[in-house]
């Protein structure tokens, strides 16, 4: 399981458990099946109306994607590109094709195959950029699905609250304060469930999917740069250093946080003070 997702799930469960245990007289009052059903069924119904069936049925698969620890083998892709580039520099196309058979990244494999086929660099880059744009659009739509559900669930929570308030108004004539209080609490439960699902499930999943897309696009752009350098027959060592820059996480591109100053600058300041 993805470590950050696991931490988030455990922390949210602990938070709700502690809050209900110490602040609620009876934690069981927060378990109301009809209220939860209004929010879940209403949200799913509105989602089915909004999206085609083939997209809605992917919800559970996308949740599994968020839960599992998906690795991007960036370093492995760099080594594959550099190794293939070294062979390509020798002009042995047969050896390049044999090395390409062991490559697992389909995006990288497509780019190298086009280079072997002597496709113009501009056409290769256009095709690969189109594939990047297609992946970004597809996965953005998947994340947007959960953002739409995050908008629907609080709305259906309010609908459940309105239903509860209507029932509450019929009890006002009886004057039973205890019964009125109980129905008022139940009326607010649907809003509680709607807000909880929106902010603890649907929105976090959407953000996680968006971040996943950013990481995947970054790897694809790295491969794109490597393919371009391969077309230009750049040095494999230069390719390695260039592609490694995609993996390095600089805190600051200009200042590394060190307090040291250049000697010339220190001497200039001393002269200025004198």
How many structurally independent domains?
A: 1
Helical amount: over 70%
Largest sheet: none
Q: Number of helix segments?
A: 11
Strand content: under 5%
Task: Say how many strands there are.
Answer: 0
Structure, explained:
With 274 residues, the chain is mainly α. The protein has one domain (27-244). The protein is 78% helix and 0% strand. The chain has 11 helices and no strands. It has helices spanning 3-23, 33-50, 53-56, 59-67, 74-90, 93-100, 106-116, 121-171, 177-231, 236-244, 263-273. The N and C termini lie far apart (63 Å). The model is unreliable at 264-272 (pLDDT under 50). It is found in: Cell membrane. It is a multi-pass membrane protein. Keywords: Cell membrane, Flagellar rotation, Membrane, Transmembrane, Transmembrane helix, Transport. Residues 101-221 form the MotA/TolQ/ExbB proton channel domain. Pfam families: MotA_ExbB (PF01618).
Identify the notable features of this structure and list them briefly:
single chain; mainly alpha; elongated; flagellar rotation; MotA_ExbB_proton_chnl; MotA-like; cell membrane
Short structural summary:
This protein is an all-alpha fold and 274 residues long. It has one domain (27-244).
Task: Annotate the secondary structure layout.
Blueprint: H1 3-23, H2 33-50, H3 53-56, H4 59-67, H5 74-90, H6 93-100, H7 106-116, H8 121-171, H9 177-231, H10 236-244, H11 263-273
Helix pairs in contact: 2-8, 2-9, 5-6, 5-9, 5-10, 6-7, 7-8, 7-9, 8-9, 9-10
